[in-house]
């Protein structure tokens, strides 16, 4: 499940945390929001940022054979 969490501090700072998005695409998701918020002071990528998306492409083939017992 993808989620964005924002903590707004009394001094106006905003902390943003993105979870559930694998790879660097989280930057694309948050770019418009960050542009509206102002200057980004720090960026700390999580382990999800460095993870690779896993795609499974498998075809299962079955063959029925009949015995002449």
Automatic annotation (TrEMBL):
Native source species: Funiculus sociatus GB2-A5
Protein name (database record): DUF2997 domain-containing protein
Taxonomic lineage of the native organism: Bacteria, Bacillati, Cyanobacteriota, Cyanophyceae, Coleofasciculales
InterPro entries in the record: DUF2997 (IPR021375)
Domain of life assignment: Bacteria
Matching Pfam families: DUF2997
